[in-house]
Design brief:
alpha+beta; FAD/NAD(P)-binding domain; D-Amino Acid Oxidase, Chain A, domain 2; 14 helices; 23 strands; binds flavin-adenine dinucleotide
């Protein structure tokens, strides 16, 4: 079938047309990226598990994935490897900057599953063997640390994960999806998702300004991150009632390196403000990513420039202030705000949400890429169970929503408790009896029954302790018990 305006030379001809019309608007920087859109939709030459199905349509993709971040690229790779005709549509052109540089070890088995672990090593990303944290008044050199290798995950082949420059990491992962057989279209914004009744049947793609194509597919996967295409379109996105965070971060040279023996470790520094903390993530080439997370109101009330505000917060932790004393910023400030939300549903007929699109919980435990990759993995399994396995769609998608939803909810509950009482978390982490539980939770993947149960037990214990501590006004673990009144909220809002 020939698309109006296109020739019978197939999609490569269309590619040239797109380029001619789009100018810089349509870019395909990833080597071998194939643009396969025609005016009537999309075509491709991949064999599809749908071919024997009565729903098969030579002009359809099995799955169109909107968004080429870690979630979209992971499911793209899985679909491609398993013979599905998948199209990943990404509005930006990789490499593009992104927040979220410290990842959990739970992602290693998924990297291995999609054949990407070797590429992580080849890229030379900094190895992250664990995490450390400091209290606001800890003397310099005093900190709590947890090593991931203390209690290796079952079947672990390495006792570290990675700190990644997200521009590079995301570009490698998206290229990997392409190499595994997914089609990747960059520089093209997708939306709206097309519905027939309540069933998603495809997506409209703006190939270049004023030129849109409808791409039909059996499934639409929303991997658009916090843009959350489907939840926004269906008005299902609900701002988190508790977390109203503001984050400012950048890259620095000249940050005091981690002490010997702690190279590559993520440092979290807690500041003398409610729900306020900073990260220091060692990256390659002597660069450290440093960011501060605080309540949005703190910034609004401060009336300060970004630089002044950042510096005022840094000074609220002794260790952080000391490690930053000779730091030079080498990139512009990057701001993120209002990022926590949830959605009513993660699935519907013909559609699934993965990664940040399904929910965003506060990043204090570096869980974002874990959620992105596991939800991509389980979404693939649900789609595969329906298409190849013939499972009832509603059941497969409901299982997906339950599994991922429960895991993410456990992250949320842990994080909420952690913010209520940071001292309590430290108290558990340093006690021999609970240390394994804490380390295993922080390793990630709360979506399998045993790790979910472990997290739930920990949540119950901490909730009980929290009740006891807050009912006792003399308890020194109570929030702010050790801080003289006049020192609260120093440096902010003044
Ligand atoms: C302050 C802060 C700190 C964080 N720190 C960490 C951390 O240390 N570790 C960690 O694991 N996570 C961290 N995160 C979370 C992490 O950034 C995300 O969880 C992760 O990037 C989610 O991946 P994703 O693929 O779901 O979404 P994204 O990485 O956001 O990718 C979504 C992609 O979709 C594309 N897109 C959006 N709309 C469209 C459209 N209409 N059409 C086509 N393409 C579209 C975007 O361009 C983007 O490339 C942090 C987040 C914040 C806010």
């Amino acid at each position: 079938m020939e698309a109006p305006g296109a020739t019978d030379n197939g999609f490569l001809e269309v590619t040239r047309r797109c380029r001619r019309r789009a100018g810089a608007g349509l870019r395909t920087d990833l080597p071998h990226t194939e643009v396969v859109l025609t005016r009537h939709g999309a075509s491709g030459t991949l064999r599809s598990p749908l071919e024997k199905d009565s729903m098969a349509d030579a002009n359809e993709f099995d799955v169109v994935v909107v968004g080429g971040g870690p979630a979209g690229a992971t499911i793209g790779a899985l679909l491609g490897m398993n013979g599905y005709r998948a199209l990943v549509v990404e509005k930006d052109v990789h490499p593009r900057d992104h927040v979220g540089e410290s990842i959990t070890p739970s992602t290693n088995p998924i990297f291995a599953r999609i054949g990407f672990l070797e590429k992580m090593e080849d890229a030379g990303f900094v190895h992250k063997p664990g995490a450390c944290w400091t209290a606001p008044r800890s003397p310099v050199g005093k900190f709590v640390s947890l090593r991931l290798g203390e209690f290796p995950p079952p079947g672990a082949t390495q006792f570290y994960t990675y700190n990644v420059e997200r521009d590079h990491f995301d570009a490698l992962l998206l290229r990997h999806a392409l190499e595994k057989g997914a089609k990747v279209l960059q520089g093209a914004k997708a939306g709206p998702v097309l519905f027939e009744g309540d069933r998603a049947v495809g997506v409209r793609v703006e190939v270049t300004e004023g030129w849109e194509h409808d791409v039909p597919a059996r499934f639409v996967v929303d991997a658009t991150g916090r843009r959350a295409l489907i939840p926004t379109q269906l008005r299902m996105k609900k701002k988190d009632p508790v977390f109203n965070q503001f984050c400012i971060y950048s890259w620095f040279e000249g940050v005091e390196p981690n002490p010997p023996g702690y190279e590559g470790m993520l440092f979290l520094h807690f500041l003398d403000l409610e729900r306020c903390w900073a990260w220091a993530i060692p990256l390659r080439n002597g660069i450290t990513s440093v960011g501060v997370v605080t309540d949005k109101q703190d910034f609004q009330r401060s009336g300060r420039s970004h630089e002044e505000f950042f510096n005022s917060l840094i000074s609220l932790n002794r260790t952080l202030k000391w490690t930053m004393r000779s730091a030079r910023r080498v990139r512009p400030w990057w701001i993120e705000a209002d990022y926590s939300y949830e959605t009513d549903r993660m699935v519907g007929p013909g559609w699934l949400l993965i990664g940040d699109a399904l929910r965003f919980v506060d990043p204090v435990f570096s869980t974002g890429v874990d959620v992105a990759m596991f939800s991509a993995n389980y979404a693939f399994e649900a789609i595969d169970a329906v298409i190849r396995g013939g499972q009832d769609e509603a059941t497969a998608l409901a299982d997906y929503q339950r599994r991922v939803g429960e895991g993410v909810q456990a992250w949320y509950d842990l994080i909420a408790l952690f913010y209520k009482l940071r001292n309590l978390f430290t108290a558990y982490a340093v006690r021999k009896r609970f240390r394994e539980q804490v380390v295993r939770i922080l390793q990630g993947n709360l979506y399998v029954p045993e790790s979910l149960q472990r997290a739930r037990e920990m949540i119950a214990l901490m909730e009980e302790s929290f009740r006891k501590i807050t009912s006792d006004p003399e308890n020194l673990l109570a929030p702010g018990a050790l801080i003289p009144d006049h020192e609260r909220r120093v440096g902010v809002g003044a």
